[in-house]
Amino acid sequence: MTLRSARLLVLLAATALAPPASAKDGFVLDDEVAICAGCHGEDGVPVDPEYPAIWGQQYFYIYTQLRDYAAGRRENEIMTGVAAEYDKDQAKQLAEHFAAQTWPAIPSQAQDGDEALANTAFTAAQCSACHGKWQGDSRIPRLAGQQAGYLSKTMHDFKTEVRMNAPDMSNIMKQYDEPTIEAMARYLSSLVLH
Protein backbone atom coordinates (compact mmCIF):
# COMPACT_ATOMS: atom_id res chain seq x y z
CA MET A 1 0.00 0.00 0.00
CA THR A 2 1.38 3.39 -0.96
CA LEU A 3 1.53 6.33 1.42
CA ARG A 4 -1.07 8.09 -0.70
CA SER A 5 -3.42 5.11 -0.49
CA ALA A 6 -2.98 4.93 3.27
CA ARG A 7 -3.79 8.64 3.62
CA LEU A 8 -6.85 8.20 1.43
CA LEU A 9 -8.09 5.30 3.55
CA VAL A 10 -7.65 7.37 6.74
CA LEU A 11 -9.53 10.27 5.15
CA LEU A 12 -12.32 8.00 3.93
CA ALA A 13 -12.62 6.26 7.30
CA ALA A 14 -12.95 9.63 9.04
CA THR A 15 -15.53 10.67 6.48
CA ALA A 16 -17.55 7.50 7.00
CA LEU A 17 -17.69 8.10 10.75
CA ALA A 18 -18.71 11.74 10.44
CA PRO A 19 -22.39 12.62 10.86
CA PRO A 20 -24.22 13.51 7.63
CA ALA A 21 -23.95 17.17 6.74
CA SER A 22 -26.36 19.33 4.81
CA ALA A 23 -23.38 20.77 2.93
CA LYS A 24 -19.72 19.94 3.12
CA ASP A 25 -17.92 22.83 4.75
CA GLY A 26 -15.05 24.16 2.67
CA PHE A 27 -16.21 22.34 -0.46
CA VAL A 28 -13.71 22.96 -3.27
CA LEU A 29 -14.50 21.03 -6.44
CA ASP A 30 -10.87 20.34 -7.38
CA ASP A 31 -10.15 18.96 -3.91
CA GLU A 32 -13.20 16.68 -4.04
CA VAL A 33 -12.26 15.49 -7.53
CA ALA A 34 -8.79 14.62 -6.19
CA ILE A 35 -10.40 12.52 -3.45
CA CYS A 36 -12.56 10.75 -6.04
CA ALA A 37 -9.46 10.07 -8.16
CA GLY A 38 -8.00 8.03 -5.29
CA CYS A 39 -10.38 5.21 -6.25
CA HIS A 40 -11.84 6.18 -9.63
CA GLY A 41 -8.46 7.06 -11.16
CA GLU A 42 -6.69 10.28 -12.04
CA ASP A 43 -6.99 9.39 -15.72
CA GLY A 44 -10.48 7.91 -15.43
CA VAL A 45 -9.31 4.31 -15.09
CA PRO A 46 -10.29 3.06 -11.61
CA VAL A 47 -7.62 1.62 -9.33
CA ASP A 48 -9.66 -1.54 -8.64
CA PRO A 49 -11.55 -3.73 -11.15
CA GLU A 50 -14.70 -3.55 -8.97
CA TYR A 51 -14.78 0.28 -8.98
CA PRO A 52 -16.77 1.97 -11.73
CA ALA A 53 -15.42 4.27 -14.40
CA ILE A 54 -17.19 7.58 -13.79
CA TRP A 55 -15.40 9.82 -16.31
CA GLY A 56 -17.93 10.46 -19.07
CA GLN A 57 -20.75 8.68 -17.24
CA GLN A 58 -24.22 10.20 -17.53
CA TYR A 59 -24.66 13.37 -15.44
CA PHE A 60 -28.04 12.61 -13.90
CA TYR A 61 -27.06 9.02 -13.21
CA ILE A 62 -23.95 10.13 -11.27
CA TYR A 63 -25.97 12.71 -9.37
CA THR A 64 -28.70 10.19 -8.50
CA GLN A 65 -26.18 7.61 -7.28
CA LEU A 66 -24.52 10.19 -5.01
CA ARG A 67 -27.92 11.08 -3.56
CA ASP A 68 -28.85 7.40 -3.20
CA TYR A 69 -25.63 6.71 -1.29
CA ALA A 70 -26.27 9.74 0.94
CA ALA A 71 -29.84 8.60 1.66
CA GLY A 72 -28.92 4.95 2.25
CA ARG A 73 -30.77 3.65 -0.82
CA ARG A 74 -27.45 2.35 -2.06
CA GLU A 75 -24.68 1.31 0.30
CA ASN A 76 -20.93 1.07 0.06
CA GLU A 77 -18.44 1.25 2.91
CA ILE A 78 -16.64 4.16 1.26
CA MET A 79 -19.24 5.93 -0.88
CA THR A 80 -22.01 6.06 1.72
CA GLY A 81 -19.97 8.29 4.03
CA VAL A 82 -18.43 10.35 1.25
CA ALA A 83 -21.74 11.12 -0.46
CA ALA A 84 -23.48 11.92 2.84
CA GLU A 85 -21.27 15.00 3.16
CA TYR A 86 -22.55 16.64 -0.03
CA ASP A 87 -25.67 18.73 -0.39
CA LYS A 88 -27.59 18.68 -3.68
CA ASP A 89 -25.60 21.50 -5.27
CA GLN A 90 -22.27 19.92 -4.37
CA ALA A 91 -23.40 16.53 -5.72
CA LYS A 92 -24.50 18.29 -8.92
CA GLN A 93 -21.11 19.96 -9.29
CA LEU A 94 -19.34 16.63 -8.98
CA ALA A 95 -21.74 14.95 -11.40
CA GLU A 96 -21.29 17.76 -13.93
CA HIS A 97 -17.52 17.56 -13.63
CA PHE A 98 -17.29 13.82 -14.22
CA ALA A 99 -19.96 13.75 -16.93
CA ALA A 100 -17.95 16.35 -18.88
CA GLN A 101 -14.84 14.14 -18.97
CA THR A 102 -13.91 11.78 -21.79
CA TRP A 103 -14.79 8.13 -21.22
CA PRO A 104 -11.56 6.22 -20.54
CA ALA A 105 -10.27 3.39 -22.69
CA ILE A 106 -10.21 0.39 -20.37
CA PRO A 107 -8.80 -2.72 -22.05
CA SER A 108 -11.23 -5.62 -21.90
CA GLN A 109 -11.91 -8.68 -23.95
CA ALA A 110 -14.91 -10.98 -24.10
CA GLN A 111 -14.38 -14.72 -24.07
CA ASP A 112 -15.64 -17.11 -26.72
CA GLY A 113 -19.38 -17.52 -26.35
CA ASP A 114 -19.88 -14.38 -24.22
CA GLU A 115 -21.59 -12.38 -26.95
CA ALA A 116 -24.15 -15.09 -27.75
CA LEU A 117 -24.94 -15.82 -24.09
CA ALA A 118 -25.14 -12.12 -23.22
CA ASN A 119 -27.38 -11.28 -26.17
CA THR A 120 -29.73 -14.15 -25.31
CA ALA A 121 -30.01 -12.79 -21.76
CA PHE A 122 -30.43 -9.19 -22.96
CA THR A 123 -33.21 -10.21 -25.35
CA ALA A 124 -35.05 -12.30 -22.74
CA ALA A 125 -35.06 -9.43 -20.23
CA GLN A 126 -35.61 -6.72 -22.87
CA CYS A 127 -32.56 -4.86 -21.53
CA SER A 128 -32.38 -2.62 -24.58
CA ALA A 129 -35.78 -1.13 -23.70
CA CYS A 130 -33.96 0.94 -21.06
CA HIS A 131 -30.28 0.56 -21.87
CA GLY A 132 -30.57 1.04 -25.63
CA LYS A 133 -27.20 0.55 -27.27
CA TRP A 134 -25.37 0.61 -23.90
CA GLN A 135 -24.21 4.24 -24.19
CA GLY A 136 -26.46 5.52 -21.40
CA ASP A 137 -29.04 8.26 -21.40
CA SER A 138 -29.56 10.63 -18.49
CA ARG A 139 -30.80 8.32 -15.69
CA ILE A 140 -29.54 5.20 -17.43
CA PRO A 141 -25.81 4.51 -17.01
CA ARG A 142 -23.40 3.89 -19.81
CA LEU A 143 -22.47 0.21 -19.69
CA ALA A 144 -20.31 -0.12 -22.83
CA GLY A 145 -16.67 -0.12 -21.81
CA GLN A 146 -17.41 -0.18 -18.08
CA GLN A 147 -15.15 -2.37 -15.95
CA ALA A 148 -16.19 -6.03 -16.10
CA GLY A 149 -15.50 -6.51 -12.38
CA TYR A 150 -17.75 -3.61 -11.48
CA LEU A 151 -20.52 -4.78 -13.83
CA SER A 152 -20.36 -8.29 -12.37
CA LYS A 153 -20.42 -6.99 -8.79
CA THR A 154 -23.33 -4.68 -9.57
CA MET A 155 -25.36 -7.45 -11.20
CA HIS A 156 -24.70 -9.74 -8.22
CA ASP A 157 -25.63 -6.93 -5.81
CA PHE A 158 -28.94 -6.51 -7.63
CA LYS A 159 -29.51 -10.27 -7.71
CA THR A 160 -28.93 -10.64 -3.95
CA GLU A 161 -30.75 -7.38 -3.15
CA VAL A 162 -27.65 -5.82 -1.63
CA ARG A 163 -28.27 -2.94 -3.99
CA MET A 164 -31.83 -1.71 -3.51
CA ASN A 165 -32.11 1.49 -5.56
CA ALA A 166 -33.48 -0.16 -8.71
CA PRO A 167 -36.01 -2.90 -7.81
CA ASP A 168 -36.64 -3.83 -11.45
CA MET A 169 -32.96 -4.68 -11.85
CA SER A 170 -33.12 -7.00 -8.84
CA ASN A 171 -36.04 -8.87 -10.40
CA ILE A 172 -34.22 -9.17 -13.71
CA MET A 173 -30.88 -10.30 -12.27
CA LYS A 174 -32.50 -13.05 -10.17
CA GLN A 175 -33.16 -14.88 -13.45
CA TYR A 176 -29.49 -15.29 -14.28
CA ASP A 177 -26.91 -17.80 -13.16
CA GLU A 178 -23.24 -17.08 -12.53
CA PRO A 179 -21.95 -17.92 -16.05
CA THR A 180 -24.58 -15.66 -17.65
CA ILE A 181 -23.80 -12.73 -15.36
CA GLU A 182 -20.07 -13.08 -16.01
CA ALA A 183 -20.64 -13.32 -19.78
CA MET A 184 -22.82 -10.19 -19.74
CA ALA A 185 -20.21 -8.29 -17.71
CA ARG A 186 -17.31 -9.28 -19.97
CA TYR A 187 -19.28 -8.60 -23.16
CA LEU A 188 -20.47 -5.13 -22.06
CA SER A 189 -16.99 -4.25 -20.87
CA SER A 190 -15.51 -5.20 -24.25
CA LEU A 191 -17.82 -2.89 -26.24
CA VAL A 192 -16.21 0.20 -27.69
CA LEU A 193 -18.45 3.07 -28.75
CA HIS A 194 -17.28 5.48 -31.41
From TrEMBL:
Keywords per UniProt: Electron transport, Heme, Iron, Metal-binding, Signal, Transport
Segments forming domain Cytochrome c: 21-102, 113-192
Domain of life: Bacteria
Pfam families reported for this sequence: Cytochrom_C
Record PROSITE patterns: CYTC
Signal peptide start and end residues: 1-23
PANTHER family: CBB3-TYPE CYTOCHROME C OXIDASE SUBUNIT FIXP, CYTOCHROME C4
Record protein name field: C-type cytochrome
Species per Swiss-Prot/TrEMBL record: Alloyangia mangrovi
